[in-house]
Amino acid sequence: MSAISPVPVPSVKDRIFTLTKLFPLNPRVRAISGQGNLNPEIRVGTWIRTWFLASGRKVTDDLKKEMKAWERIKDDNELPSDLLKGLCGMYLGLRQEMLVAKSEDEFIELIRPRYDGYHACAQAIGFYEKSRSELHALMHRYYRAKNSNPELAVVTAPGWIPDKPILIAGSRGSEPKFQFETDAERSPRRPKVPDLDEAFHEVRQSLSLKSEMTNGETYRPLQVEVTQAGLRLTCGPGFYFDYQDSCEILGAELAGWMLKNPGLVPNPNGTDLPLRKQVEDIFNLRNRCAVLGVSTLLIAVDGNRKGKYFWHERSQEVAVNPGSRSVVPSGTFQPFSANLGSHPGDFNITSTVLREFAEELLGADDFNDAAKHPMSVRDCEQLRPFLSQLDEGRATIHFLGIGIDPVTTVPEVLTAMVFRGDLLMRSVLEDFTPNFEGTFGTTPLSVEALQYFARLPNVHSASAACASLVAKHYDYLLSSPNKSRAA
User: Fold this and answer.
1) pLDDT digits (tens, 9 = 90+) for 207-222
2) Cα separation of 486 and 483, whole Å?
3) Which of the 8 DSSP states describes residue 24?
4) Pairing state of beta strands 307-314 and 325-327?
5) How far apart are CA 415 and CA 329, in angstroms?
6) Is the preceding omega at residue 329 within 30 degrees of 0, hence cis?
7) CA 7/CA 429 separation, integer angstroms
8) Distance CA 16, CA 19 (A)
9) In the structure, what pLDDT confidence band is assigned to residue 199 with cuts at 50, 70 and 90?
10) pTM for this prediction
11) Which residue has the higher pLDDT, 208 or 470?
12) Based on the number of CB atoms within 10 Å of its own CB, is 475 exposed (0-12), middle (13-18) or buried (19 or more)?
């Protein structure tokens, strides 16, 4: 066993904090720590434990000895040679000469290629998260020639928007048809972030000190078919990191291009956006690993057809899409329970709509543990009076169509949920409470109000499309539920 010797490292704490942001964590070490985002500034104890174990040292249960050693390292600006070697083994691409560089200029020069790529990606992600309306406007024009319904904020293939809304829940409603491909081929190799050779989700995690991003199971949409009878959807197994690395990365790529080319429009032949070029046929969902969004415009009307529609405005304090508005409830079509591979009970849009309704508007937390303790929407206490209205036909859920977000290429199911009578007014409006993500609100219902909402620049594309379609079919949706066309 070689002797352990101290190695001088100028400004050791600052250099370690800088380098652990720039370089990706070794997957082997990630497995030891059990953490997706192992940040020494936030998860100090976990990081110290992982570092010492990766260096071949034993650790104490309370970490007092290891924490004292860390304080001594920071005071002396010296790293024991075994910990230096272990640290370089923890992070892919990290080299000892970077840490021990004698001057700050030498240190910067050694890390510059990595720093420049990381900084450019960080700027692009920041712009992407705060400027979705600008990105959307650019991409909506980019896909205009492929869009069968250019008046909508989403991109649609021929037939994806039915002539009239299709009843899927309520009196005589019928759910969309689902097919699950257990053995669906995985999408092409996920692209790496340019200049970093790293997965997009890893960079995004490292930029968010308090990120709790996990690689949860998803249902990956593979094929969409819409007829006058309704929606037919084929899904396969997927994971959240696959979605980040094949869809969210497209938004960041676009943002980076816009920062370098203000006021210009990307070449439609794809040369300006090479990652987007790889999924040129955005209607072929098998060329990427997307998730399926479900956006619902919630409406409450009385016997005189006077009512309100509901919306959500994100706080200026949140990192992603601050100040943006969306319809409620909105969420992702995903498994209710973990480790099942597929669950037939998940395969209906109504369950997703009601789950998000319960969580977003009723404050229900029943579904937080559903991944470990399977449950259905009918097990949720707060939902029971609303389920009764659906069962009796006094409330309805209609399928309006499906469209693709032009920035991320994620497909979104568009629906409307209408409650008739005063149940929704009484029970929900009194309980509306803002949270750190933003506030909920209502607007008096009219065609003009819906059209205005759809034109606002800070409204998410699927939400704008929902509002446009409800305005188009206003009289049909507000008519007696017995007149609605079922699938």
Assistant:
1) 765 556 788 888 999 9
2) 9
3) P
4) antiparallel
5) 10
6) yes
7) 64
8) 5
9) confident
10) 0.83
11) 470
12) exposed
